[in-house]
Amino acid sequence: MLDDNNLKALVSLLGDDDAEIISHVKEKIVSLGDGMIPLLEREWETNFNPHVQKRIVNLIHSIQYGGLLNRLTSWKDDGGTDLLEGMWLVATYQYPDLDYNKIKAEFEQLFYEAWVDMKEDSNSADTVKILNNVVFGKLKFSANTKNFHSPSNSMINNVLESRKGNPIALCVVYLLIAQKLKLPIYGVNLPNLFILTYKTDEEPQFYINAFNKGLIFSKADIDNYISHLNLTPNPIYFDPCDHIDIIARVFRNLIVSFEKIGEAEKVKEVKELLAIVDRNGSVSES
Q1: Per-residue pLDDT tens digits for 101-157
Q2: What is the DSSP secondary structure assignment for residue 201, as one 8-state letter?
Q3: Which residues, 6+ apart, have CB-to-CB distance to 146 below 8 Å?
Q4: Is residue 65 one of the residues assigned to a domain?
């Protein structure tokens, strides 16, 4: 690692007009990783050359994006067991300084709000009705129908703040609370609409539409839905999916969002992120 004086000298070369020098400097700075970000931020604050400032902003993003690629790969290789961590990783694409512990603490509070209303002797349907009342009543989460394709719908911090989200974001909030309550609720990759299922060996399986305030429906309803879409029934439309599949679908939503607002560079980058976790490219977004 270079000492402070050499690091400062390296950053100062960002003002050079020689394209070859700039290319070399950028490559070197990116290779040094996250430790360069505070120095780059200080340089951005004190350097009033707009060309240099733009180069610094792009370099900071390159370093942060490279770190996200590595963290997402590690999360996936470790089995993607922590869904909240996966959602936090997605959000750090737009909010690289987002604090995971802050998001985790917010979910601890949501869990407590649900836990105090739970009844131990409730059957599965009654348990879900109680949870629906908590999530969509007490906590006031609801469908974001006005800005359905906004990138903010894929950012867990924005969803927690606004209490609005798209189908998969609302399902994730619901699912994270349910998991903490140790309820057998899982995500399901239904085409065009991400949903949840309550599945045990003792009780009949049923489904939950978080985008419609936790509406409960049956396998026959899904059969009708699949038939209406002229699709061939597939087990993934009925059975639980894992956290990696959920994060892949969130990235697909984000790609559509950025496409709709013409953010071509972000589309390209999110497709690279999706490639890390994608195992089933045929399932549509939402």
Answers
A1: 999 999 999 999 999 999 988 899 999 999 999 999 999 999 998 888 899 999 999
A2: S
A3: none
A4: yes
Domain-located, residue 117: yes
Residue 284 within a domain = no
Domain closes at, from 77, 99, 125:
77
Q: Measured between alpha carbons, how far is 18 from 14 in angstroms, rounded to an integer?
A: 10
Partners of 198 in beta bridges: 185, 206
Count of domains forming the chain:
2
Statement to judge: residues 124 and 164 lie in one domain: yes
CA 261 to chain centre: 19
Q: What is the DSSP string of 73-105?
A: HHHHHTT---HHHHHHHHHTTT-TT--HHHHHH
116's tokens: 């105090």
pTM of the model: 0.90
Contact 173, 136 (CB under 8 A): no
Task: Report how far residue 20's alpha carbon sits from residue 272's, in angstroms, rounded to the nearest whole number.
Answer: 27
